User: Which sequence fits this backbone?
């Protein structure tokens, strides 16, 4: 069974594609691709079918990370069963995502930066314009997420 990881934001063009591409890259560096099912989605429907925002594409390209083949999609009910970790960028994403997933609350659904020392939202660069901040926060969060998953899996083995 693959480990399902879904990143969620509002538009699925800035933050969640950034986190998806960074996480995919971290997993690839560890040679663990075959063990993971990784995707991202938005709670909003404005950008369905669009590629990532040019700010996200440019920032990832600076780090030699490709966004080829990535297109925005909306979160759907079936995502709840497909994914083990539903990782939201901010508190409003959680509030919007839970009913779309048919849930009132769930330990599967949490914020990416709940995993770091100073828990917080990933600010939305669609409004702030600061894609460097997004990159750095997503990288920190994704490293912590991979560590958490490795720990969760180790615990499950015993
Ligand atoms: P994201 O940013 O949630 O990080 O993808 C946004 C992208 C588009 C919009 C809002 C946020 N929008 O309103 O179209």
Assistant:
């Amino acid at each position: 069974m693959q480990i399902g990881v879904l990143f969620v934001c509002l538009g699925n063009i800035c933050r969640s594609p950034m986190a998806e591409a960074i996480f995919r890259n971290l997993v690839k560096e560890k040679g663990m691709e075959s063990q993971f099912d990784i995707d991202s989605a938005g709670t909003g429907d404005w950008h369905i079918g669009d590629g990532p925002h040019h700010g996200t594409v440019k920032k990832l390209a600076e780090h030699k990370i490709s966004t080829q083949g990535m297109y925005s999609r909306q979160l759907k009910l079936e995502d709840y069963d497909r994914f083990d970790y539903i990782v939201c960028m901010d508190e409003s994403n959680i509030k919007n995502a839970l009913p779309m997933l048919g849930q009132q609350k769930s330990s599967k659904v949490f914020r990416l930066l709940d995993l770091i020392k100073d828990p917080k939202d990933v600010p939305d660069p669609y409004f702030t314009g600061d894609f460097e901040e997004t990159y750095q926060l997503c990288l920190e969060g994704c490293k912590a997420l991979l560590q958490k998953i490795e720990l969760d899996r180790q615990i499950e083995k015993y």
